[in-house]
Fold:
Amino acid sequence: MNFTSAPTANPSTESMVKSLQHWWSLAGVELDYEDQPSALLASEPVIAPRPVPAPPVATEPTPAETKPPVQNERLPTGYDDFIAWLANDPGLVEAGWSKHRVLPEGSLKPEVMVVSALPEKNRHGDVHLFNPDNQKLLEKMLAAIGCDSDRSYRTSIALSLPVDGRIDERHWPSLKKRLLHHIGLVDPKRVICFGDMAAKIIFGEDMLTARKNKQFINHDSSKTEAIVTFHPRILIERPMFKAEAWKDLQMLTRISAP
Structure:
């Protein structure tokens, strides 16, 4: 079963990805909040003058500046306790980003566990694991490999959206540790990782590199097969990548009928 249209002559995958990365850059997606955004509709680039920095003032550092990510925290060993901890613990990394946390959804011991880096907003500003359009495409992708949505499990690495839509690299190790523990509790047969940030956090590789081969996730004493592919959001924005995503999905072991 294929969720794509018949293939047409297209540029190479790498050239399409580079084009997409260039588009992201023009759109300001890769900019830090201190960078100057591009004036995309102006005839000449608008460059705002940077203020002259004031001399440094000796102040007491805030706890958020000095507190390193927790590496040796004790994670709840039962699934229900773990989910309650995700929902309520004030010491999670995300506690400083937003009061709203998006919790995982789905069945334990699923055929497929879907992992994205962050939840996302819908057109009304509400935050979900996937907005409605992306959720519909995700269901089609799962159906294409023989997995009904009720045999899947969905989560994001971080439970809340940071203001700038990026996860600081200093938080990656603790978030990866938490995710590996989460995967061990869910016990999926396969894992699909969506997007560049998820690939970097989980596998230490960018998406273009990580998606070349089937991956394996080691957790506790187990090893689970995984792939990295494009987020449904990107597939909707750039349909030419759907054929490549289908190739990625085909690397997973065939899912048997229930």
Summary: The radius of gyration is 20 Å. Strands lie at 105-106, 112-116, 120-121, 127-128, 152-156, 190-194, 215-219, 222-229. The mean pLDDT is 81.
